[in-house]
Amino acid sequence: MSDYRLTVGLEVHAELKTATKMFCSCRNDPDEHTPNTTICPVCMAHPGTLPVINKEAVHHVLLVGAALGSKLADEYTEFDRKNYFYPDIPKGYQISQYKYPLVQGGSLNSVAITRVHLEEDTARSQHPSTNSGQADISLVDFNRSGVPLMELVTEPVMHSPKEVGDFARELQLLLRTLGVSDADMEKGQMRVEANISVSRDEVLGTKVEVKNLNSFRAMERAISYEIERQTKLLDGGGRVAQETRGWDENTQATFSQRSKESAEDYRYFPEPDLPKLVISEIPEFAPEILKKELPELPWERRAKYIARGLKADDADMFVQQRYFGDFFDKVVEILKDEKLILLAANYIANDIASGAVEKESSEIKIKNSLNASRPFAELIRMNGEGILSSRATKDLLHRVVYGGEDPKEIAEREGLVQQNDEATLGVIVGRVLAAHPGPAADYRAGKEASLQFLVGQGMKESKGAANPQELRKYLVAELARKN
């Protein structure tokens, strides 16, 4: 690959979270499993039916544009007919946008955005297998037909599989943060098509579109595969065909599907059944109003955490798994002390989050435990002030966060409060030195490692309640005094 330059642009489709479909009043329900139940004459393209634009879907796309710093359609936007003939298109064309999209420009992860527009989703084709394993029939479920679909197109400016993966993951996170789409790739709510080319210089090579990418890993592997396939073709004196290819997860390879269509092949023309939509006539779609609606965006939240001193990985986890970030934010409001805040972040990221058996159950628990932020903050304060040891703090974490128990009450009831007073520690030190004269003599003879053994015995004697730093100090003093 050293002699070649990879260039990738993405086309990302995301099903929008709306109450109804794009051009009719049918329920938008991605979890409906009974085929052909959330349909009507409009989304089934019966003669004489007319589409009506879904205002909520338009708002969602404009909100995405505001987050990306894009140019929103300030005068008007219009819908077009995109003509092609597949069984999953009941009208024989798809209502989409071409020349006048809702959103143009903007960027994400330093990747330039070409456009973001609205269209209707297709139906879902199914190919049930017979007993012999062969699919001899095809069925079409029209429940998905007409669901609002956002399409985001990037400029061809990405040059590595990792860069592409990072962009797509950040986009998914943005869509979820804005609440416009669940963007679950396994459910087909977010679908990515990669336009890939390799060349020896800055001039773009022949574009190959790869479809059927249902995970970020598949997308990155498909790009890596295409790099190898296309460079071998070029090195062998061949030519790369402009085509659409699919990704086969079983063989970990792309395969040819059809020659790549151009815009002319789709014969776009303005949708005659829909008037131009004048955005400026809708007050709530004004750019300044949309910007006020924006929540804290992923990159803003990530930067805030890092500026506070959190490790980059912890900051990213709090952004990716928002329920942990929300919990941490509540704890920050209570603790205020920066050292204790960083201590809290460490326990949340490394003990609560990593200790979760299942992400989903953890999410439910932490969402239901936001009221536990105050007792958790108290637990962190007790640890930071030396009242509780690290071991005791870890043992109490889940009882406090998920069980709602009071850390102070537990610590006092179960004898977990760290012992710091001289009298108590003096008794423990006396017992340890009396029980282990050999290691005590070894330490006096210069064997430093023996001290750690004696500290461990002291912790055991106190059942973990002694402050290890204070215990160490008293041991050293006592050993020196008897030397």
Sequence-ordered SSE layout with sheet pairings:
Elements: E1 5-15, H1 55-68, E2 71-72, E3 80-83, E4 93-96, E5 103-104, E6 107-108, E7 111-120, E8 124-126, E9 139-141, E10 148-154, H2 161-178, E11 190-199, E12 208-213, H3 216-235, E13 243-248, E14 253-259, E15 269-270, H4 287-293, H5 298-308, H6 312-320, H7 322-335, H8 338-353, H9 359-367, H10 373-384, H11 390-401, H12 407-413, H13 422-435, H14 437-444, H15 449-461, H16 468-481
Helix pairs in contact: 1-4, 2-3, 5-6, 6-7, 7-8, 7-10, 8-10, 10-11, 13-15, 13-16, 14-15, 15-16
Which keywords apply here?
ten-stranded mixed sheet, 15 strands, single chain, three-stranded antiparallel sheet, 483 residues, 16 helices, alpha+beta
- Multimeric state of these chains? single chain
Distance between the termini: 70 Å
The helix count comes to 16
The structural class is: alpha+beta
Mean pLDDT: 89
What is Rg? 31 Å
Let me know the number of strands.
15
Main β-sheet: number of strands, strand sense, barrel status?
A: 10 strands, mixed
Shape: elongated
